[in-house]
Amino acid sequence: MSAVSPTSLDAALAALTADTVVLAGGTDLMVEFRTGRTRAENVVDIWRVDELRGIAAEGDGLRLGALTTCAELVRDPLVRERAAILAEAADEVGAEQIKNRATLGGNLGTASPAADLNPVLVALDARVELVSTQGKRELEADAFLRGYRETARRPDELIGAVLIPPPRKRRSAFRKVGTRRAQAISKVVVAATVELEGGVVRSVRAAAGSVAPRTVRLRGLEALVGQQPSADAIAAAVRAVDVTPIDDVRSTAAYRELVLRRVLVTMLGRLCAADE
Amino acid sequence: MTRVVGTRLRRPEGPDKVTGRAMYVADDVPVGCWWGKAIRSPVAHGELLGFELDPAFDFSQVVLVRAADIPGVNVVDLIVDDQPILASDAIEHWGQPLLLVAAADQATLDAAVRAIDVRVRESEPLLDMEAAEVVFKEIVIDKGDVDAALASAPHVLRRTYHTDSQEQMYIEPQGAIAWPEAADGTVLVRGSLQCPYYVQRALARALDIEPARARVVQAATGGGFGGKEEYPSVVACHAALLARAAGQPVAVIYDRHEDLAVTPKRHPARVRHATGYDDDGRLLAMDVDVLLDGGAFTTLSPVVLSRAAIHAAGAYRCDAVRIRGRVVKTNHVPYGAFRGFGAPQVCFAVERQMDAIARERDLHPATLRKRNALRLGDTTATSGRLEESVGSEEVLAKILERTGFEDHPWCQPRPAAGRKRRGAGFSFFFHGAGFTGAGEVHLKAKVDVRLAADGRCEVHSASTEFGQGTVTMFTAIAAEALETGPDDVLVVEPDTGAVPDSGPTVASRTCMVVGGCLARACRELRARIDAHGGQGAEGSFRERARAFLAAGGDGRVEVTYASPPGLVWDDERYEGDAYPAYGWAADYVEVEVDLDTFEVSMERFVSAVDVGKAIQPQLVEGQIEGGSLQALGFAHIEVVGTKDGRFLQDRMATCIIPTTLDAPPMEVLLVEEPFSHGPYGAKGVGELPMDGGAPAVASAIEDALGISIDRVPATPERLAAAWLAAHPEEAL
Amino acid sequence: MSEHEFEVNGVRRTVSADPLRRLLDVLREDLALTGTKEGCGEGECGACTVMIDGEAVNSCLVPVCQVQGARVTTVEGAGLESVQEAFLEEGGAQCGICTPGLIVMTRAWLDTCEREGRVPDEAEARRALAGNLCRCTGYGKVIASALAAAAEGGER
Ligand SMILES: Cc1cc2nc3c(=O)[nH]c(=O)nc-3n(C[C@H](O)[C@H](O)[C@H](O)COP(=O)(O)OP(=O)(O)OC[C@H]3O[C@@H](n4cnc5c(N)ncnc54)[C@H](O)[C@@H]3O)c2cc1C
Ligand code: FES
Ligand code: FES
């Protein structure tokens, strides 16, 4: 076991090597060290890199430091106003003790298919800012979350921040279906945003977790754009969603697929209801 | 009028618990203690060929114990001698202990474990209990002519029910520390356990020493629920064998993963019912077939089956009853004791059957229960007559009045409201207190009380505290019987070197049986003190007690349990008074089911329970609430699956139990129908609340969704499948 | 091995340990503070709950390198008396293994309520304590204890 705990971003970036393990709140990694999934070698602990903290307005959008914890997302008024479903999702992560440590960057970094924040980031069209000694680059959350526990991060990069675009007139919704009411890993998790104009869908962005090897953007739903969101149109779009869930120790493929579709129908129906 | 019984005492051990001073086994590891671990079978069935030791590791730093090194008998002492402490050739289940290792520190131990390779020849495991051939135990109960009654009944309903396994999930995993033989020849084991004398017998046989030389002390114990009834004998034997080999104290403390993977859980069950009844739903014949998966070894399965069989016809009156129960051998990790002990499985089945009959006859389930409930003077399935302390009518009346369930249109079509459906359900049940049949007669439980030099009364018993409140309850009983305050009573720690064998702390027997002995002992002691100083003599209890001692009085009273007179039990025919008394209860549950996800939310829970007498109402409520939540978890979210003989949910992250947010607000309605042979009228309450929750939840879900629930846990996955079967138009 | 300096229950401590050693082990083994319990070792049960700078965390998930310079409060610490008293009175502790974690979590919750001006009620208590598994009580008396502690004005 070895670890260093730099206190500045430069020092942290300088410490990164090809096989570094970046440690943030540790709620994933400390478990992985124990089960042997990840070796506790060459660890760079970034918990005290304050430059990676902080929630700030950026234009009408948001800039969220990678070390922002779920607890901070839940309590922050700006987040509640501009990215309500992110606060909502963060509130459903683990329980209080976990929320106090679990970070946004860590959720992205693990890239678990069951992660709760990641579908929200995709649905919000969030961008991930990566930093290295070479500079910065930005990726769409969807592009960053490349595969099963696999991201587009290079070993010399840290996740620096998450950028949330302005909410405009988007309506949004989040639904987590866990094994129980708290401290639960998702069997199915869905986030969606919809923008309507004159009774017609202007944009739809939805993503789901635990129904594929990675957080998936539900592109099938995007066929709704330009249509009037009638019950039939929604049902057809939901039918067109393509996912590949599996049976595992928490649930079954059949359940996940069924529930995803039922939740989507209800969720989109509400988001598109005229009176809102 | 009682003075202490029925009031609210604070737990004497409470201050230590809330400040973190209470010493659980892992909190008190002696200096120089080694760490031990079992190397386990990687297959569910096969033959052990040997071990390969990596030459790169220096094995001189560790000790190894093989089956051949066991000085005594290589069996875990319990009912049948079929479970080896360490396998020597045949492997019967995944995770079976094969070899023991200990090292001076954890890192060396881990390294040693990695350096040992187990060689086995694998064979096909038998994992389907229906296909099992070896029967650990079969029980048949016969009352009246069932075949004739079924043939002539106007209606007969045949159905099959299933209950899956369940994990006890005490929050403190198993653990024990053993010391090598001391100069005086004693071997000391301190552990997290329910039954010190079980462990003592197991150690004595394994080490080939006199039982008195195996001293077993209970550490503070972080929950048991039956899970620390038989398994601590395994842990203790492992630790003691390693301590003997190492010449050092050795701690064997499981982490959660090991605990979940290898310790016994609730027996999975399949229960078939054929019930004959008349137009009014009166029961005419009950034919019940119970099958339990015992896993690889006998453990406590025969006793679990016994309780399952006796409770299989439910708390109902019926003149023709046949119950056939079998527990069979498979290559699963052995199943064992868990609160309820076979009753929750059969209670689920019979209560669902009653609901099914209600639906068939278009009767309200509450009406059907009232019509058939056992009452004073009735005979049970084993033909025992209920002579006293039968709270059946009162619990029914109380819960129905409180919940208004009789006015609830159960399973009647109701207008759907949004994506949520609400439902209410109900169950009625009983649970025998104490050991079955002649168990207590054979056991001859003992308690003794002694005046200490300071005049306080010390209570010596082997009854353990693991949350249920033994210490508080005994304090109350002793203080009451001595006619003094709780401060004059000291319940000593269970230590086989100092306390008599009061029997195991199981079977809802501690209060009724051991507490009863305690009350008698204290009354006798009190009488002696009074006789010495004269009744109403001056001074505090302690002063009078000291004066009594100073005058040469004998301040020690030992009492042996005597069963209530008139109890008759025929163990061959399974006939007679199965238990001296029963606890009676009814549960009511309201649920809300999400039609998109089939998640079931527990909205309200009410339980009416006849406990005879609540010695400490706050403790009784705690027991009922805690047991009931375990039952609600069993009903819908606690999943224990297996694959190739391994438990799938072998981490706390996957083996889930309810959190605060999964628990409904709970209301307990206490009924007190005193039992003349229990202390102050008390009967047992430990297990009863585990029995009724699952069928009540199933009943409520059935009410909400209109689909029948014949299996628990009724997981969202199962509900979704059942819903789709009933509503094919909603399929994808 | 490296040196880690932090405060535990008001006392400055310097511990020489592997930086990734769990705070739980440092407390229990190096500092002999065994009131903090281990129920799972993977963040699920909350038996190992302690406060770091006033925030409740699972000490089985925190490496000691992350408490450098921090204030750690365990069940052995001061300021928990009113909560402990409430758990005793309301029967919130049965087997007691989950209790230290619950006591610390309740304190952290009441402090948060006070800081954020929220009224501690049953729904809030259930949410706050959802990460502390208890298998004995069914939670009724745990919640009653937490609310009784809140009614004490939550003062320390
Ligand atoms: C009991 C429990 C309950 C949980 N419940 C939930 C839940 O409900 N929903 C949910 O989504 N998750 C849950 N999790 C998982 C976990 O809490 C989240 O994934 C959390 O967001 C991880 O954040 P962290 O800071 O703790 O990550 P860490 O464990 O520190 O790191 C996780 C990964 O991200 C990488 N990483 C972290 N930060 C950066 C960075 N800035 N730059 C580059 N790489 C980085 C790390 O290298 C590592 O690979 C739970 C975990 C536990 C133990
Ligand atoms: S031991 Fe840390 S949460 Fe269970
Ligand atoms: S009191 Fe036993 S687990 Fe909570």
Describe this structure in words.
The complex is a heterotrimer of chains A (276), B (732) and C (156). By secondary structure, chain A is α+β, with helices and mostly antiparallel strands. Helix content of chain A is 30%, strand content 26%. In chain A, helix 10 (231-239) packs antiparallel against helix 11. The longest helix of chain A has 19 residues, at 253-271. The termini of chain A are far apart. The relative contact order of chain A is 0.12. The model of chain A has no long low-confidence stretch (mean pLDDT 96). Chain B is of the alpha+beta class and 732 residues long. Chain B has 3 domains: 25-125 and 169-262, 2-Layer Sandwich (Aldehyde Oxidoreductase, domain 4); 339-432 and 581-730, Aldehyde Oxidoreductase, domain 4 (2-Layer Sandwich); 439-560, Aldehyde Oxidoreductase, domain 4, CATH 3.30.365.10. Chain B has 17 helices and 28 strands. The radius of gyration of chain B is 26 Å and the shape is globular. Chain C has 5 helices and 5 strands; from the N terminus they run ββαβββαααα. Chain C has helices at residues 23-30, 81-90, 99-116, 122-128, 140-151, and strands spanning 2-8, 11-17, 49-52, 55-58, 71-73. In chain C, helix 2 crosses helix 5. The longest helix of chain C is centred in the C-terminal third of the chain and has 18 residues, at 99-116. Chain A binds chain C through residues 1-5, 23, 26-27, 30-31, 33-34, 40, 43, 45, 47-48, 71, 75, 94-98, 100-101, 181-183, and chain C through 18-22, 41-44, 46, 49, 55-58, 60-63, 65-66, 68, 105, 108-109, 116, 127-128, 130-133. The structure holds flavin-adenine dinucleotide and FE2/S2 (inorganic) cluster (FES) (2 copies). The site of one FE2/S2 (inorganic) cluster (FES) has 12 residues of chain C, from loops.
